[in-house]
Design goal:
The complex is a heterodimer of chains A (about 500) and B (about 250).
Chain A lengths: L28 H9 L2 H23 L4 H17 L1 H14 L3 E5 L2 H14 L4 E4 L3 H5 L2 H7 L3 E4 L2 H8 L16 H12 L8 H18 L2 E4 L3 E3 L4 E6 L3 H7 L3 E7 L3 E2 L4 H14 L6 E6 L9 E7 L3 H5 L15 H5 L1 H6 L10 H11 L17 H5 L6 H16 L3 H4 L2 H13 L2 H16 L7 E2 L4 H7 L4 E2 L6 H12 L1
Chain B lengths: L3 E5 L3 H6 L1 H13 L2 E5 L8 H6 L2 H15 L5 E3 L2 H18 L2 H10 L3 E3 H9 L11 E4 L3 H6 L5 H7 L5 E3 L14 H4 L1 H17 L4 E4 L2 H13 L5 E4 H6 L11
Parallel strand pairs in B: 1-2, 1-3, 3-4, 5-6, 5-7, 7-8
The chains are: A alpha/beta (about 500), B alpha/beta (about 250).
């Protein structure tokens, strides 16, 4: 089949090769970043997008005099919900069931996929419309359904771009932020058969609207996620910007909600705190345009069959560990990735997970129960910007350090790692730091050793082994001949 | 002015790589009438091991530091990240060790540990240290100074009183330079990308010197400046504050 010449085609290097967001298969972070760092279009798109969101967020946070109190309240109530998660989940189940909903429990991704497929088969569904849900990406639902003969149609604008462009999400709130509108135009023109489409945002949105409207009216089954589950009433809350969620929650006959077990809030009133924080942190808006809340089934209004699938998939094991539990406070606002100087350079795909950025760096390896994604806790300079912006005060650097020590404990017994220069160096350094005279001898030896690499200008331009990682982009000043402690000692002797 | 006594914890990094910073702290504080002491057995706070995941190794270093300084009146540290290590990570480590005596010693020690700018402003009570440094300077707020120690405007107040010094504001002051300790070699490529972005901001100020209260960020920035012939140098703030007409800042390489 011959393809027509595309005069406006995006050069092939502009969109990276298919990202792998399965932590079991993805390459380690330092390897995965390499193609990304060489991609100027992607880096510009990512930096521009998060700089815009961050600036909006900063402006709206500044206008809230009680921002720190709100953060403290949100942190407390999320911690309380997690400390009593069993109680609140059972309360949610009984309230939701009493209101006509059906609650299912899924221990892992495979069980959740099976439950959802069974429900869809019962509906004789061959297609399903979807509200954006990262949890469904976590369990890789779409490819699973497709293999089972059920076509899933994403309805969130960014998700449509990704689905039609055969791309993976690179952010949890604005999943297509790595793609600019010229690239969107190319994808839409190609996949919707609109060869005269311009890159005017209004025209692109209109194209998506037409594309979607037909699906909203035709497909009677919907799948979505949950921002919050309200234990007190059994309600589910979804916040969104485009109204596609509202369409999915009103037009279809059947609604299936997939939610992580950590999403529960004790009381309806808790939304007062959470909703003030969420939109400001996520998109830099005072309020998100659409907030949908529904409780079970209401005769004559909206879906008449309603299922909630509560997903564990590693969450219980996080809950069981007191220092790690705070990870589950997350409300998926993405402020941490928007503020992260690492994410700003790499975007999301390098994290090899649907959850990228600082929260992904702690959540993903824990969801994998430390069997995969061990490079992610090291994908941070520990600058602390994520903790500063987190609306529920997750101390991400603290959890990163916990996880780093767990990874080191896993690795240090492997023979290959035993002789790894970094491992060897740190073990030796620890012995040296225990005795000042040993440390001082090592300084002397180090100075002699580095002299081999020090040029006449007193600087080192090239080092072997681990040192080469430094000197690939920076010089290093040669070691001064007199460490400070020797100067001090000599001065004290001279004064006598 | 009442006599202030302090002991200098130079940190392993400054001792080995930046002794001129230590000499500047000594000159500066003695000029201000501080009676300064130096514990010859000091080595490292354990930050490098802690941040790389070598938690088992950090315990011995934390214990060693607390015991070394338990009888010291005041400790001054010219490195914001080492102070942050002690303030933010030691409590958890010492809790985990479960030694009641050590915990008591640490709790008594903690409020006596000062980062250099904290020591000058909060302990000595001086903003004008009588320095002279006739250069255009931009201040890089290292992440630990900014977010862990909340140094706030202390560094700017100290620089504002330096005669001849012209301060230039650094754009995106709150953005990390990409050093991150072993991050700079474990994730060298991302670290370098962050450094490139930071260096653009630093160079855009047109300053002659980029200063900070942490030589680790400065080694990162300075290493790139040297590699790129950037026409700019890094200098620890202690060296600016120690500089006078009679004894100008030591020329660094």
């Amino acid at each position: 089949m011959s393809r027509p010449a595309q005069t406006h085609a995006i050069p092939p290097h502009a969109i990276p090769p298919h990202a792998i967001l399965d932590p079991a298969l993805a390459p380690p972070f330092p390897v995965a970043v390499l193609p990304v760092l060489r991609n100027p279009q992607l880096r510009k798109n990512v930096a521009h997008a998060i700089d815009v969101i961050q600036a909006k967020r900063a402006k709206l946070v500044a206008e809230k005099a009680d921002w720190q109190q709100l953060r403290a309240a949100a942190s407390d109530l999320r911690a309380h919900a997690l400390d009593n998660l069993g109680f609140y989940l059972e309360q949610f189940e009984s309230q939701c069931t009493a209101a006509g909903g059906h609650v299912h429990w899924a221990a892992d991704d495979a069980e959740a996929r099976r439950i959802i497929l069974d429900l869809l088969r019962r509906e004789n569904a061959t297609e399903v419309i979807k509200i954006k849900t990262m949890t469904s990406a976590e369990i890789q639902l779409n490819p699973f359904l497709e293999a089972a003969g059920i076509q899933a149609h994403e309805t969130d604008l960014a998700e449509i771009i990704l689905q039609l462009g055969d791309q993976e999400p690179s952010h949890i709130v604005v999943p297509a932020l790595h793609i600019n509108r010229a690239q969107v135009r190319e994808i839409f023109a190609r996949r919707m058969g609109l060869k005269d489409l311009s890159d005017d945002p209004k025209e692109l949105t209109n194209a998506a609207r037409h594309f979607l409207r037909e699906k909203f009216l035709r497909v009677p089954t919907a799948i979505g996620g949950a921002n919050f589950l309200i234990a007190e009433t059994g309600a589910v809350a979804v916040v969104e910007s485009e109204g596609n969620g509202r369409m999915c929650l009103t037009l279809p006959r059947t609604m299936i909600t997939l939610a992580g077990i950590e999403k529960v809030l004790p009381r309806f009133q808790d939304l007062e705190v959470m909703l003030q924080l969420l939109a400001r942190s996520a998109t830099g808006e005072r309020m998100n345009p659409y907030t949908s809340l529904w409780t079970g089934v209401t005769p004559g209004d909206g879906p008449q069959t309603f299922h909630v699938v509560l997903l564990d998939n590693g969450r219980s094991s996080i809950l069981a560990r007191p220092k790690h539990r705070q990870t589950l406070k997350c409300i998926r606002c993405a402020a941490c990735m928007n503020s992260c100087p690492v994410y700003r350079q790499t975007g999301g795909h390098a994290y090899g997970s649907v959850y990228p950025g600082p929260i992904g760096a702690i959540l993903t390896p824990q969801l994998m129960q430390m069997h995969h994604a061990q490079s992610l806790p090291f994908a941070s300079s520990l600058c602390g910007a994520c903790y500063e912006v987190c609306p529920v005060k997750i101390n991400i650097p603290e959890v990163l350090l916990e996880l780093r020590s767990e990874v080191v404990n896993q690795e240090r017994h492997h023979l290959g790692r035993f002789f790894d220069p970094m491992y060897l160096g740190l073990r030796i350094a620890n012995l040296l730091f225990a005795r000042a005279w040993l440390f001082h001898s090592a300084q002397w030896a180090g100075r002699l050793g580095l002299r081999l690499f020090t040029r006449k200008d007193g600087w080192i331009h090239s080092l072997p082994s681990v040192g080469a990682k430094w000197t690939q982009t920076r010089d290093l000043r040669g070691l001064p001949s007199q460490p400070f402690h020797s100067w001090w000692a000599a001065r004290a002797r001279g004064a006598k | 002015m009442t006599l202030v006594r302090a002991s200098l914890f130079i940190t392993c990094y400054n001792d080995t790589l930046y002794p001129e910073t230590g000499r500047a702290v000594v000159n500066l504080l003695e000029r201000l009438g501080v009676e300064l002491d130096f514990h010859p057995k000091q080595t490292c706070c354990g930050q490098m091991h802690a941040n790389t995941g070598f938690r088992g190794e950090v315990f011995s270093q934390a214990k060693r530091l607390v015991r070394l300084y338990r009888d010291t009146e005041t400790i001054v540290v010219p490195s914001s990240s080492c102070v942050a290590m002690i303030r933010d990570q030691y409590p958890g480590l010492i809790e985990e060790l479960g030694n009641a005596e050590l915990r008591r010693q640490f709790e008594e020690l903690l409020p006596r540990i000062y980062e250099l700018s904290e020591f000058l402003i909060d302990r000595v009570g001086v903003e004008d240290v009588g320095a002279y440094f006739p250069h255009r300077v931009t201040y890089h707020a290292s992440c630990h100074g900014l977010r862990a120690l909340h140094l706030g405007d202390r560094p700017f107040r100290l620089l504002a009183h330096v005669r001849g010094l012209e301060q230039v504001a650094l754009p995106n002051l709150d953005r990390c330079c990409g050093f991150g300790g072993t991050f700079s070699v474990k994730n060298a490529e991302v670290s370098s990308a962050m450094l490139a972005v930071k260096l653009q901001d630093v160079v855009s100020t047109g300053a002659e010197y980029c200063t900070a209260l942490d030589n680790s960020c400065l080694m990162h920035l300075g290493g790139a400046m040297h590699r790129q012939y950037a026409g700019m140098k890094t200098i620890h703030m202690a060296q600016i504050l120690a500089s006078t007409e009679a004894s100008p800042a030591e020329a660094t390489l």
